[in-house]
Amino acid sequence: MAQFFQTGGDTLDTVSSIVIFTVPGVIVGAQLGALVAGRILQHTLERGLGVLFTLVAALTLGEVIL
């Protein structure tokens, strides 16, 4: 771990950029997710998540195939 911080440079910049944008996104997403989950029926959430996963899978396969 110490070697990672001593190396610095591009790797440390990349990791810090990822952390800087990921942490606030996770916190805000968790708050919004809890709010939405309390207002939408369970069945609707499950169906919406299934559609989202299907869409992501199709896009991923499309990138690989094309």
N-end to C-end Cα span: 39 Å
Quick one: biggest sheet? none
- Tell me the overall shape: flat
Sketch the topology as an H/E string, one letter per element.
Answer: HHH
Description:
- The chain has 66 residues and is an all-alpha fold.
- It has a domain at 32-66.
- 92% of the residues lie in helices and 0% in strands.
- It has three helices and no strands.
- The chain has helices spanning 2-7, 9-39, 42-65.
- The longest helix has 31 residues, at 9-39.
- The protein is flat.
- The chain starts with a helix and ends with a helix.
Chart the SSEs and their pairings:
Elements: H1 2-7, H2 9-39, H3 42-65
A few lines on this structure:
The protein is an all-alpha fold and 66 residues long. The protein is built from three helices and no strands. The chain has a domain at 32-66.
